[in-house]
Write a structure and sequence with these properties.
globular, 8-stranded parallel barrel, alpha/beta, 13 strands
């Protein structure tokens, strides 16, 4: 009788064609450090610091595939003008020994239409809480354009020096809106049955795989459930994961939950920082948060490995590599993930609190994260994502002097506000 050896989470591992120094990935957390939709010194330093802290790979969040696909105007969208800054970022990450991944996608109904100066698109037309605004039903031409744009974004990511791309199929962004029975009321081949609702994610994954040419790793961030009554749920996620595995378009899936559109706190667990959110809002939005925030920003009990139970269902259904996210803050949790059959782990809030956490764990396997899951980092997405409890770090200029001029030259809209991709 043979026993399967549990991988060492701190040892090197292969992710598709990429060799990582360990199995720990900094998950995507919107940084709000891209004025003019271009890379700033602050964004470079943000990811350099995480790389220096010991992760195997850090994920830039997020790189929209089209200008209307941003959650706000000051968010990177993939075009030629963005490449030099992104190359500077990946060079800085590589110099610290880590790999770099670009999260690519289209925000769909979560996009900031007013901020972008462009309509928000979704599987179907509906009134959205983002603004509020009306999201437009994507036409077949829109779907084809956005699908192709994912391939273009992948080629630009390769040109920019990224080792991987992560396609955003979660949180009720564009692709996720097609998966959701609540958001997708289409009567064509992209609506109705699960096979039809999953058509877009499969087509996009295939487009990205072809564009990658096997040169970089291709991951997808896939919802296990939306946390919304009648929304995309675990039984459907199992089937979609199986289809994606059959298609052979992905090197790994990072499993997630929640809806940035309808139930954002479901992803994070822990307290909902209503007062902190209200403090950074416009007067009208501040009033709305105070009056109705508790009905939209719910609090959920936090516990370590809070996505594990659901993720086990996906693990049992597919053999492809999976990335476990959610409440992973120490080596004990990482070891549990490895023992449960997951190939990689992803961390976010704990690394905002301590970018150097993985180095600490390398030295002391019993080291504990200082993150208390207060979620007060969430409102900081409006002015530069950080942990409010961490020791202030040296100030870094928000942008190179040339970047705003370049942004203006390509017609980037004025500053805006939007929710955080993750």
């Amino acid at each position: 009788m043979t026993t399967t050896q549990v991988p060492d989470v701190l040892a090197p591992a292969d992710l598709g064609p990429v060799r990582l120094r360990n199995r720990i990935i900094k998950s995507a957390t919107f940084e709000h450090m891209a004025p003019g939709a271009l890379v700033s010194d602050q964004l470079v330093e943000f990811h350099r610091e995480v790389a220096a802290g010991g992760v195997g790979m850090t994920t830039v969040a997020y790189c929209a595939v089209a200008p209307e696909g941003r959650t706000e105007a000051d968010q990177i969208w993939m075009r030629d003008e963005a490449v030099p800054g992104l190359r500077r970022l990946t060079d800085a990450v590589h110099a610290e020994g880590a790999a770099a991944s670009a999260q690519i996608g289209h925000a769909g109904p979560v996009a900031g239409a007013k901020s972008n100066g462009l309509p928000a698109l979704s599987a179907s037309r509906r009134i959205s809480p983002m603004g509020p605004q009306v999201t437009h039903a994507a036409t077949l031409a829109d779907i084809a354009r956005i699908r192709t744009a994912h391939g273009t974004a992948t080629r630009l990511a390769i040109e920019s020096g990224f080792d991987a791309v992560e396609i955003h199929f979660g949180h009720n962004y564009f692709a996720s809106s097609f998966l959701s029975p609540v958001l997708n009321k289409r009567k064509d081949t992209y609506g109705g049955s699960l096979r039809n609702r999953a058509r877009l994610v499969r087509e996009v994954a295939a487009e990205v795989r072809e564009a990658s040419g096997g040169r970089i790793a291709v991951l997808a961030k896939l919802n296990m459930d939306d946390g919304v009554p009648g929304g995309f749920w675990l039984d459907e996620a199992v089937q979609v994961a199986q289809w994606l595995e059959e298609d052979g378009s992905l090197d790994a899936i990072e499993l997630t939950i929640g809806s940035s559109l309808l139930n954002p706190m479901y992803l994070f667990k822990g307290d909902a920082p209503l007062a902190e959110f209200a403090a950074v809002m416009s007067p009208l939005m501040k009033f709305g948060v105070k009056m109705a925030g508790k009905f939209f920003l719910h609090s959920y009990p936090y516990h370590d490995l809070f996505m594990l139970d659901a993720a086990r269902q996906i693990r049992a259904a597919v053999s492809m590599p999976l990335v476990l996210l959610g409440g992973i803050t120490d080596k004990a949790a990482m070891d549990t993930a490895m023992a449960e059959g997951f190939e990689f782990v992803a961390m976010a809030r704990a690394l905002l609190r301590e970018p150097e956490l993985i180095n600490k764990i390398q030295v002391d396997h019993d080291a504990k994260s200082l993150c208390i899951h207060c979620n007060k980092c969430m409102p900081t997405i409006f002015y530069g994502t950080h942990c409010v409890l961490a020791k202030p770090r040296a100030a870094v200029p928000l942008a190179d002097p040339v970047l705003p001029a370049v942004g203006a030259a390509v017609g980037v809209p004025a500053n805006g506000r939007g929710p955080a991709p993750a």
